[in-house]
Amino acid sequence: MSAPLAYRARKALRGFARDESGATLVEFALVIGLYLMIFFALIDFGRMAFHYVNAQRALQVAARLAAVRSPACDDVPLIHERGVTPQGEIEPNFGTNCNVSDTTCADPGTITCAGDANNDTADEIWTIVQRALPSDAEIGDLSFSYSYDPDLGFLGGPYVPIVTVKLQNLDFQFVTPIGAFASLWTSEEVTQISRVTFPSLSTSMPGEALGRDGTS
Question: Which ranges does the record mark as transmembrane (predicted)?
């Protein structure tokens, strides 16, 4: 190779090495994926926070209704039955507070069931709260519990438990392709990160005769 030709070749190579005319495009290609993932995350996680807060509020309404309506579960007692009086002791009179002793009122334990559209109370509650939940939520995602509390009620009186309404197994579906972008930086499959499951939510409050006194 002649000296002038070698000089021109070296000059061309040095010029190519210093050429940064395409650097911006390369940087843009590296950043745009991360930027879009953050943008889509703001949209979807904002929606998820909205549904989460609404679900909490909906459960508060559900618990208030469940506390004054007929039980959403079968086998919830009508009244506080008499407990087993120890041998040799006098049976307490009707009207005695359940907390006088551990045996004044019978303890039926905790009665739990899933929401069922065939139950009037569960159906009424679901009609109200479903509007605050993701569109794929079902009445079976609600569960109702009735727990005995000796500080509530008296022997022979209406059964007054602690009523708990719980929301569980509720999935939130992303509407943006955040999963596709996230999969570029993780080893997870897109289908595994396109939805998340809400943590279980619950609200409890004392029952009010469970709608059996004719006032509700």
Answer: 21-43
